[in-house]
Specification:
The protein is 40% helix and 26% strand. By secondary structure, the chain is an alpha/beta fold. A six-stranded mixed sheet has the order 2-1-3-8-7-6, with helices on both faces. The protein has a five-stranded mixed sheet with strand order 14-13-15-16-17, sandwiched between helices. β10 and β11 form a beta hairpin. 41% of the residues are buried.
Length: 414
């Protein structure tokens, strides 16, 4: 079964309000094996609503519409769905009586416009709303020769989620084909999206029944796999197969197949080896330490860190010789190695991580542009270093530096 979710409300076309209902509905529909193939957000314009409903009915078996069921002039969902189907509406007397009673108990005068919440599309079943005044509606109909299901839900999330669970889900369980959706994902650090696709597309394109999505975030590429089958085991076996093949292809970069963050994986690896890390950061301003300490239980493997921005603090806290800074500059491989080794020695940690660089927008020189960053990792088997040349603004450079540092640490532990 293919579904489309339509979120109605002009406020969601502004920068100030987001559509969260579709996320909750998608999660619930996937549990029933229903695939959400389309999502539409539109304002409170009657003609646009009618067009959106007709388009959805042509391409989806199930159309779920949230919002626009209130009592005001711009609540037009009921009217638009009726128009799209070419049918009328009938006012439900029980809803009208319930509204009169509800307002009377509050000592508020009920207005005629409130009664439009009792208008039921011809052929639809009313879905009482225990948490609000706007009932939902369920409609099984035929549209252009195809069987379709339409569900109207109130916009407030508290009302929508309760009404869905109590009245819509049981109905969907009766009509939705018995399918199960399974997913898998791979997370990779500091690898170009183009390289991931070039190396994995020859694999995942051979699985026509598996939907593969590549997502790019800051310093991370994610591969998401999804399929449906008659049993959950069958579906999971299928996505695990393609995910496993892609993981073996990208093994040098994959840090998680279970959703863990890079910092969680690094801490887990250090914990398994009974190792502790200390950090000395300059341009990242403690970002690596912040990411690590955001993980519960990180104190087992993270000893602590120093933010040594000024050169004199690099000397005071990590024993970096002043002559070394004068000779090579604070942003250099030599100084990165020195602060990594110095923080390791000072703290007694097994590993010392050093970062120094130019995050910008100022501070660059002809030989050391904005985005030049040096990482170093000191351990019992020596010190390794890496030069980065990053693009972007200050925050992007800082974040990518921390991502590269954690990825460097993961490779060392691996």
């Amino acid at each position: 079964m293919i579904a489309e979710i339509i979120a109605v409300g002009s406020e969601m076309l502004t920068p100030y309000r987001q559509d969260t209902n579709s996320l909750a509905l998608t999660a619930e529909l996937n549990k029933l094996g229903v695939t959400v193939a389309f999502k539409t957000i539109l304002g409170d314009t009657f003609d646009h609503l009618v067009d959106a409903v007709r388009i959805a009915l042509r391409r989806a078996d199930l159309v779920m519409i949230s919002g626009g069921l209130g009592p005001t002039e711009d609540d037009l969902t009921r009217e638009a769905v009726a128009a799209a189907l070419g049918v009328g509406m009938t006012r439900d007397a029980a809803v009208v009586d319930a509204l009169k009673l509800r307002f009377a108990k509050r000592g508020i005068a009920v207005r005629e416009i409130n009664f439009k919440q009792g208008d039921v599309i011809d052929g639809a079943d009313l879905l009482p709303n225990a948490n609000g005044t706007a009932p939902g509606q369920w409609l099984a109909t035929e549209f252009e020769g195809n069987e379709r299901f339409i569900v109207l839900l109130p916009g407030p999330p508290r009302e929508l989620t309760a009404l869905y669970a109590e009245q819509v889900q049981p109905r969907l369980q009766m009509v939705a084909p018995k399918r199960y959706i399974a997913t898998a994902q791979l997370r990779m650090a500091v690898v170009p999206e183009s390289e991931v696709d070039a190396r994995t597309s020859p694999i995942y394109t051979t699985y026509a029944d598996v939907q593969t999505t590549i997502l790019s975030t800051q310093g991370e590429i994610q591969l998401h796999f999804q399929t449906s089958a008659r049993t959950l085991d069958e579906a999971q076996e299928r996505v695990d197969e393609v995910a496993g093949r892609c993981e073996r292809e990208m093994i040098d970069f994959v840090f998680s197949s279970n959703g863990e963050s890079l910092e969680q994986v690094v801490l887990l690896m250090m914990g398994m080896r009974n190792m502790r890390l200390a950090t000395a950061e300059s341009c990242t301003g403690g970002l690596v330490a912040q990411r690590l300490t955001a993980v519960p239980g990180s104190s087992r493997s993270f000893a602590g860190g120093v933010v040594a921005y000024a050169d004199e603090l690099k000397t005071a806290f990590m024993d970096v010789p002043r002559e070394l800074i004068q000779q090579h500059g604070a942003v250099s491989e030599e100084v990165a190695r020195a602060i990594a080794e110095g923080i390791r020695t000072r703290t007694g940690a097994d590993l010392g991580l050093g970062i120094t660089g130019i995050a910008g927008p100022g501070g660059a020189t002809l030989n050391k542009p904005v985005g030049r960053v040096y990482l170093a990792l000191a351990g019992p088997d020596g010190t390794t270093a890496q030069e980065l040349n990053l693009n972007g603004d200050r925050e992007r450079i800082r974040w990518f530096s921390s991502q590269h540092a954690l990825a460097m640490l993961r490779r060392r532990l691996q």
